[in-house]
């Protein structure tokens, strides 16, 4: 488990932008945290780091948005309105060659692969967020190790 504190939306975006460098095809990130915590901001940084040129917005109403203009495809999901007993076919995305990012992943535990990087964002106050990254297997552990090395050397 690794923890980071950010003090602005820009800092959160910088963090996830750096993380994007280490992502490989098939990686899955789950994003948890209250409404307004910064899950979509985090995803915007990730998209930037992947070199995606399109505008990334919250897919709350469409559930999934795909972006194909970067180094890897990005599948951005928001399952706020979905429950675990609905089969909406999301598991297909986890087997493709892109990176899947799932906002409100706690709503669909049985559809997720085991090895996900779990990212929890907690709101401390208007500007401060605590980001906790927990690995659940070797694939997500690699991302966590890489980003922690990077952060240590950049400070
Ligand atoms: P979520 O997707 O979790 O509902 P959003 O990313 O849409 O949240 O919104 C996060 C809000 O919090 C934005 O209005 C953003 O400007 C604000 N914010 C303030 N400080 C931070 C920070 N350190 N990191 C991320 N967002 C922040
Ligand atoms: Mg959101």
Automatic annotation (TrEMBL):
Q: Name one GO molecular function term.
A: metal ion binding
Principal localisation: cytoplasm
Pfam families recorded: TsaE
Task: List the keywords (alphabetical).
Answer: ATP-binding, Cytoplasm, Magnesium, Metal-binding, Nucleotide-binding, tRNA processing
Q: Name one GO cellular component term.
A: cytoplasm
Q: Does the keyword Disulfide bond apply?
A: no
The Gene Ontology biological process terms listed for this entry are:
tRNA threonylcarbamoyladenosine modification
For whether the record's keyword set contains Isomerase, the answer is no
* Localization terms from the record: Cytoplasm
Identify its protein family.
Answer: Belongs to the TsaE family.
Q: What is this protein called?
A: tRNA threonylcarbamoyladenosine biosynthesis protein TsaE
